[in-house]
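Exercise 7.
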Amino acid sequence: MDKPKNNIKKALKITGNVLFYGLIFLLLLFSISNLSIKREGDIANIMGRGFLPVLSDSMEGSESDSFNKGALVFVKILDEDDKKHLEIGDIITFFDASLNAINTHRIVYVSENYVVTQGDKAAASAQYVPGGDNTGIQYEVVTYANIKAVRTGHINGLGGAINYLQTPVGFALFVILPVVLLLAYQGFVLTKTLLAVNKEKIEAKHATDKEVMLEAEKERIRKELLEELKKEQNK
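Solution. The predicted structure, written as tokens, is:
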């Protein structure tokens, strides 16, 4: 009857440990990625791989790699050689001087010194035409120096949560607080285990001392009986 209960306890303990070390790992990733940012406009990354929450709907479209507002976009940080191999259709993350912020759009034109990007939503109504009259069309001219990364994938709907996690309140509530609680729980379990071990040691020592005392008492009684017998024999 106790075996199923023990299995459940064991499974819960394993699950708790997985969650605990998973959160520790996430906290470490956040810390390392944030430390990798050297200046404003850089992308938090680990070994050249990063992610960005999407804050606008400019990339909503019908393309297979279009994504919505609130998505989480995964990117690969580009070096100078990588930038030379960018092509029309690639989705890049760049520093947008007009916004003074990071932006992510699709390349619609490539030249020797710059690329032209456009959001899929804007392109659906009026696409940039190289060498044509693009008056009133929304597009961005991006120098290679301002290109940061290229999109490698995305998950719709996850960006909002990650964006909130990156705020001080979200980070404190959903990363730091759970880690603190789990550390406190682990400390409680460790203390309880140590107390149980000490109790077992004390009980074992007490049982040993009691046994020694019993043997000593038996020996004393035996000696007294022998003395009594000797006295009886000498009479």
